[in-house]
Design goal:
347 residues; alpha+beta; paralog of FGE (formylglycine-generating enzyme); four-stranded mixed sheet; three-stranded antiparallel sheet; 8 helices; elongated; disordered N terminus
C-alpha cells in the first residue's frame, strides 16, 4: 500500500514513474523464449517417428511377415487349401503318376520257395515258416487305373507340420527307441494306421491300396525287388533278421536304423519311387486276407480290423524286403519304429 501511494504522489509532482514488476518477471520471460526452440525440435522428432511407424505398418499390411508355424502356437487349419493359400510351409508334394494297366501281383510257388530258402539261410532260421510266404500266393494279373503315389515316405517334418497346422493330437509320443531317429528328413514312424489315414486325408490324399503299392514297387514285369530280381545289399536300407536289438541291425548300406528318405536312391522302382524295399514298412489300405484262388495259405484270416503293410524295413533282411512281402497287424494298438507310410490319390 505504501508503494502505490508513493507512486501517486510522484505522479502528482511530475516525476516519471515506471510500472511495478515482480522481481523474477524479466528472468522468466527470457527463460520462456529460450525454451521455445528445443520444444519445436522435439515436436519435429515426434512427427518423424510417427510417420516412420506409419510407413512400417503399411508395409506389413501389404507384405505380411510369415512366421514358421513350428515356432508359434498351433492353429486350426484343417485343409491343405487354406495352408497353400497362405504363406505357411506345407508338406513336400512330389507324387509320381503310375499309368493304368495290368501288372503281375503276388508270388509263384518257385518264388515262395526262394524266399523261404533265403530265410533259412539267414540269422534266425528257426523263425522261418513257409506259410508266412504262402500268403503271397498265387501270382496273378491285376488291372489298376491311373493314380499318383508319393515318391518318398512321409517325413517327420511333414507329419509335424500336420500336427501343428491341423492342431492334431496323437495318443502317444512319436519318439522312437533310437536316439537319432527324429531328424526332419527321416520317415515318420511310431504312428498308428488311423493317424496315417488322417494325414493323407488332410492333404487331400489317401493310403494306397495294396495293388497300387505293389505295382509302384515292381512295375509290370513281376520283379522281386524294386531294382530287379538280383539282391544287392548296398541298394536297400535293410537289417539282418527282423529281430529286436541293435545286434540284429545292419549298417552295410550306411545306416544302422532308418535313413533320410532320399538317402538310398538306388532303392528305386521302375517308376522312380524310392525306398520300397527298405527303411520302413508302409501302411496300405484294405483288409489282410489271402488272395483269391490261394489254396496254400491255411492260416485263418486275422479278422476285419486287421491292417496291411507292405515292403521291408531297416530290420528286415532280403527275404522280407521283396516287393510282394505282406504284413498284418491290429490297427488300434500297433505302433512301431519300423512302420511308416506314403500317400496316394486318384489322377
Amino acid at each position: 500500500m505504501e508503494n502505490i501511494n508513493d507512486n501517486n504522489d510522484n505522479k502528482e509532482k511530475g516525476i516519471e514513474v515506471t510500472d511495478y514488476k515482480q522481481p523474477n518477471e524479466d528472468k522468466n520471460a527470457v527463460e520462456l523464449q529460450s525454451n521455445i526452440k528445443p520444444m519445436a525440435h522435439k515436436n519435429k522428432i515426434i512427427i518423424i517417428i510417427f510417420i516412420a511407424l506409419l510407413l512400417v505398418a503399411i508395409t506389413v499390411l501389404i507384405n505380411p511377415v510369415v512366421i514358421n508355424p513350428v515356432a508359434v502356437n498351433p492353429v486350426d487349419v484343417v485343409t491343405p487349401e487354406a495352408v497353400v493359400n497362405s504363406k505357411t510351409p506345407t508338406p513336400v508334394d512330389d507324387m509320381i503318376l503310375i499309368p493304368a494297366g495290368d501288372f503281375i501281383m503276388g508270388s509263384t510257388d518257385t518264388e515262395i520257395d526262394m524266399a523261404f530258402a533265403m530265410c533259412k539261410e539267414g540269422e534266425y532260421p528257426s523263425g522261418c515258416s513257409r506259410a508266412n510266404y504262402e500268403l503271397e500266393y498265387p501270382s496273378h494279373t491285376v488291372f489298376v487305373d491311373d493314380y499318383l503315389i508319393d515318391k518318398r515316405e512321409v517325413t517327420n517334418r511333414d507329419f509335424n507340420l500336420f500336427l501343428i497346422l491341423k492342431n492334431y493330437r496323437v495318443s502317444s509320443s512319436l519318439d522312437s527307441p533310437y536316439e537319432y531317429e527324429n531328424a526332419d528328413n527321416l520317415p515318420v514312424s511310431m504312428i498308428t494306421f488311423k493317424e496315417a489315414v488322417d494325414y493323407c486325408t488332410w492333404f487331400n490324399k489317401r493310403l494306397p491300396t495294396e495293388a497300387e503299392w505293389e505295382k509302384a514297387a515292381r512295375g509290370t514285369n513281376g520283379i522281386m525287388w524294386p531294382w530287379g530280381s538280383t539282391w544287392y545289399p548296398n541298394k536297400s536300407n535293410h537289417g539282418k533278421s527282423g529281430e529286436t536289438g541293435k545286434e540284429h541291425l545292419d549298417d552295410s548300406d550306411g545306416y544302422l536304423t532308418s535313413a533320410p528318405v532320399d538317402a538310398t536312391p538306388e532303392d528305386i522302382s521302375p517308376y522312380g519311387i524310392i525306398n520300397m524295399s527298405g527303411n520302413v514298412v508302409e501302411f496300405v489300405s484294405g483288409v489282410f486276407k489271402p488272395y483269391k484262388e490261394n489254396d496254400k495259405y491255411n492260416i485263418l484270416e486275422a479278422g476285419p480290423n486287421t491292417i496291411l503293410m507292405k515292403g521291408g524295413s531297416y530290420k528286415e533282411d532280403k527275404f522280407n524286403s521283396r516287393t510282394t512281402t505282406r504284413w498284418n497287424e491290429v490297427p488300434n494298438y500297433f505302433r512301431s519304429p519300423v512302420a511308416g507310410f506314403r500317400c496316394a490319390k486318384d489322377k
